[in-house]
Amino acid sequence: MCGSEFVKRYELIAAATVFIQREWAVLVSVAAGLLVAGYEVVHFALIDHLDWFYASYFVLGLAIFALATYLWMAEYRSSHLQTRHGSPA
User: Fold this and answer.
1) Are 65 and 38 in contact (CB under 8 A)?
2) Exposed, middle or buried: residue 33 (CB in 10 Å: 0-12, 13-18, 19+)?
3) Lowest-confidence region among 3-17, 34-48, 74-88
4) CA–CA separation, 89 vs 32, rounded Å?
5) 65: Cβ–Cβ under 8 A, 6 or more apart, which residues?
6) Model pLDDT for residues 4-20, shown as the tens digit of each residue
7) Secondary structure (3-state) at 74
8) Residue-averaged pLDDT of the chain
9) Contacting residues for 26 by C-beta, under 8 A, at least 6 apart
10) Which pTM was predicted?
11) Around Cβ 11, how many Cβ atoms within 10 Å?
């Protein structure tokens, strides 16, 4: 399995988890965005040429990452930042 097939499968898994309203599903989307953008960076480093098609996938990967990160921070971040679990009084 080559790298692009792996990225496509991971994108498919991330797209399927959009309808699952769990924290891990949002983190899968965050990872998918980073994977897409990172794959395009490696692709550019190896080939030293970037077509508009691959540049658009890089931008798409960053958009997926940004939107999923925003969703995670809006929905789930507050549950991880609790310093106290309640007052003893």
Assistant:
1) no
2) buried
3) 74-88
4) 45
5) 30, 33, 34, 37
6) 776 777 677 777 777 77
7) helix
8) 79
9) 17, 68, 71, 72, 75, 76
10) 0.71
11) 18
Which are the contacts of 36, defined by CB distance < 8 A and separation ≥ 6? Answer: 7, 11, 57, 58, 60, 61, 64
Report the C-alpha gap between 65 and 31 in whole angstroms: 7
pLDDT one-digit tens code per residue, 55-68? 888 998 899 899 88
Burial of 42 (0-12, 13-18, 19+ CB in 10 A): exposed
Domain boundaries, the chain: 3-80
| Residue among 17, 14, 21, 19 at smallest CA distance from 36 | 14
Q: Tokens 């309640």 — which residue? A: 86
Structure token digits, residue 37: 């953008």
Q: Output the six-digit token pair for 24.
A: 């891990």
Q: How far apart are CA 34 and CA 60, in angstroms?
A: 10
